[in-house]
Structure formats: structure tokens, C-alpha cells
Amino acid sequence: MTAYGLLVFDDVEELDLVGPWEVFTASSMIRGGADTAVLVAERPDPIRCGKGMRVLADHTLDDHPPLDVLLVPGGRGTREIEVRNPVVTDWIARTAEHTFWVVSVCTGAFLLHAAGPARGRRVATHWRHEDDLEAQGEVTVVRDARYVVDGNVLTSQGVSAGIDSALWLVGRLHGREHARAVRRYLQYEPAPPYLADEPHTT
Amino acid sequence: MTAYGLLVFDDVEELDLVGPWEVFTASSMIRGGADTAVLVAERPDPIRCGKGMRVLADHTLDDHPPLDVLLVPGGRGTREIEVRNPVVTDWIARTAEHTFWVVSVCTGAFLLHAAGPARGRRVATHWRHEDDLEAQGEVTVVRDARYVVDGNVLTSQGVSAGIDSALWLVGRLHGREHARAVRRYLQYEPAPPYLADEPHTT
After folding, report:
1. Strand, helix or coil at A91?
2. pLDDT tens for residues A62-104?
3. What are phi and psi of B23, to 5 degrees?
4. Among A49, A67, A70, A106, which one carries the catalytic annotation?
5. Residue A130 touches chain B, beta carbons under 8 Å
6. Are A185 and B158 an interchain contact pair (Cβ–Cβ within 8 Å)?
7. What is the pTM of this model?
């Protein structure tokens, strides 16, 4: 049984959050409902994400079940607000002491840095914010990897990269054959368009 | 200005919904906030998605702004409930008459079929449900394409495929250079893990 807890806050980036959520919960489904995944927020009010979607958290910071995996997504809310919110950074620091894995997506790495778990580590973040993160000191930003594993800290590049890192994690936890089954369920066989420069046909 | 409307319902699959949502809203951000994206539901209560995330819709079926793009995500709720819910299928049929594009992700194709827009079309759906959809009749299921464009109907394969089809659509609407900028913002350079069979190192 793996208990996943995903931190949410105003101006969290939607796909940073929902990419890994989908991977973790699909993993649990394939494992017969063995695992749990919950959203944890500072307050019980609806969260307004960075692009306007409103989601409801399942628990507050001071009342949630024990977690095996703590995931911190990115978004404008991390860099501009939450890195200076000691209620959130203290909670991350305390919670990370007891989880097997500490995970961030995109600029969630700034929160892991402010709270402590990313200090002295090799980490990934969104390409646009790599210089900013390195300027914080006590961290090595890896610029050429989709995601980075350093000890029990798993960080990934921007937004969509959380899908790849979460798939890696469920494979690390429950086997790579299982991760492949999750990938098949998600039909994750990416085909980004417009990679070629070809004549317009319409 | 493009007005995106995404239908939500209980047991909608989270990533089916949020992949395109992220693409559409990032596209709008890059275009200086030119566009709008809203979630539309039958009732104003919170939606419980298929894997347990709760989201709030912005509008109800009988009170929403005009839409240019209608997107219907998939999930257990489509096949088991909403295809037999005339309130939803009638709304899709009426709304699709006035939108420029009608889009589905995953098993959302079943709803487009039940409502009419997918009848007589070539469509894509989740690999596990291709036979079921074809058995409905009056539809050609394309099994070897990530997404399918037939007239103004854009359908995609399972769950994660909505990211690719939504990127195609914003390129079709606003130019492929723009779609590339959206892809760059999302750092959508997928790297699925466990594609190789190699020795375990841990």
C-alpha cells in the first residue's frame, strides 16, 4: 500500500498536479485499489489553479493521513507566494522527514528548496526558471534530464514532465512491468504535432 | 478570440480533461489572455472525477457563454452513465451545431456518437474500447492514429492523447508556430520510462 499526498495551493499549475495524480491513481486501480491518493491544502476552501480550474482538497495540512510519497507541483503560486509562506514550507519540511519519497514537478522544486529537502541535491525544474533556482544557492540544477533522482528526492522539468517522473516512480515502487501497464492504460504513446516544417495543406 | 467549453460529469477521467485544459489555457496565456476556457456541467454540484479528484464547474448546461470549441473528455462516466442521459446528449447535439470544432478524448467518442456528431465519421478512442465503439454502428474506428480529424470532428485515443490533439488544434486555430510555443511552455518533450529491458540497478 502506497499513500500519495499531493500539495495544492492557489495558482498551482493544473497539469503539474493532474499528470502525476492520474499516474498514481491509475497505478492504484491496476493494483486493485491498493493505494490512496489525496490532495492536501493549507485551508479547506476551493483551490483556484493557475489557469482558473477550481479543485477541492481532501485534507488540510494539520489533518491528513500518513504519507509515503509527498508531491509538490509547480505554478506561479510556488515562486510568488508559497516559498514565503512558512506554514507551507514548515509542513513540507516536517512531512518530508517521514515519507519515502519527496517529489516535485516544474517550479515545485523552488518549494522543496525553500523547505529544505532539495538543498544540496541535484534537481530539475522548468527550463525558464533554471537560472533562478541555481541562484538560490545550495542546489545543482540539472538542465539536460527530463527528471532527476537524488537519494529520495525526485524532481522533474516543466509541467508535462511530471507524467514521466511519476511513471518512473510507480515502476520504482511496484516494478517496471507494472509501470508499463499504467502507461498502457493511459495510452501514453506521445505524438507531439508540428515537429516538422512541412507545407500547409489547408 | 476562441471560447473553449469542456464538458464535465461524474467519473470523467482526470487527465482526459486536464491535458487539453492546460493546452487551451496556456495557448490563451501566450496570446495575451485572448481566449476563454470554461468547465460546463449538468448541475452546479462539485464533480467527482473517475479517480476521485473533485472539481467545480464554471457553468451549467442551460447557462453558459457561446462556445467555439466543445470538448468531451472520456472516463467511466461516459460509457456507463452519460450515453444514456438525454439531457447531456441533447445538449451536445444542440451545442455542436454552433461550434467550429467538436472534440473528444478517449471514450468521450462514445458520447459524440450517442449525441450524433461522430455518426458517419472516422474517429479514435481508447484502445480497449475500439471494438465496443465500432459495434455501435455508423462509425469508422481508426486504430492506428493518435488522433483523427474528420471535418470539424477531432477525436483522440486514450487519456494522454488529448494533449497531442489539443496541441494540434491550437496550431490549426492560431498557427503552428504558436502551437510550438505552447509546447515549449508545457515543456512537452515526452520521455516515457521503461521502454528498454535493462538490468535492474537498485
Report:
1. helix
2. 999 999 999 999 999 888 899 999 999 999 999 999 999 999 9
3. -65, -50
4. A106
5. no
6. yes
7. 0.98
Cβ-based contacts of B101 with chain A (< 8 Å): none
| Model confidence pLDDT, tens digit, residues B11-40 | 999 999 999 999 999 999 999 999 999 999
Residues, chain B: 202
Report which secondary-structure segment, H or E, holds B95.
helix B86-96
Question: What mean pLDDT do residues A109-135 have?
Answer: 98
Q: Is the ipTM of this complex over 0.90?
A: yes
Residue whose cell numbers read 455501435: B136
CB-based contact, B143 to chain A, within 8 Å: no
Residue type, A186: L
pLDDT for position B14: 98
To the nearest whole percent, how much of chain B has pLDDT over 70?
99
Where would I find the beta strands (DSSP E) of chain A? 3-7, 36-41, 47-48, 54-56, 59-60, 69-72, 101-105, 122-123, 140-141, 147-150, 153-156
Please report, to the nearest 10 degrees, the dihedral formed by the alpha carbons of residues B78, B80, B84, B85 taken in order: -60
pLDDT at B202 over 60: no
Nearest to A186 among B15, B52, B188 (CB): B15
Provide the pairing of β-strand A140-141 with A122-123: parallel
CB-based contact, B160 to chain A, within 8 Å: yes
Tell me the residue type at A21: W
Per-residue confidence at A201, pLDDT binned at 50, 70, 90? low
Q: Do A160 and B193 count as a contact with CB atoms less than 8 A apart?
A: no
Decide if A49 is catalytic. Answer: no
Tell me the CATH number of domain B3-185, given options 2.40.128.20, 3.30.420.40, 3.40.50.880, 3.40.50.300.
3.40.50.880
Place B115 in a pLDDT band, splitting at 50, 70 and 90. very high
Show which residues of B are catalytic.
Answer: 106
Alpha-carbon span A179 to A167, nearest angstrom:
6
Q: Sort out which chain B residues have CB atoms less than 8 A from A56's CB and list them.
A: 46, 54-56
Q: Give the mean pLDDT of B129-143.
A: 97
Looking at chain A from residue 12 to 71, which residues have their Cβ under 8 Å from any Cβ of chain B? 13-15, 17-19, 21-22, 25-26, 29, 37, 39, 46, 51-56
Instruction: Output DSSP code: residue B36.
Output: E
d(CA B103, CA B170): 12
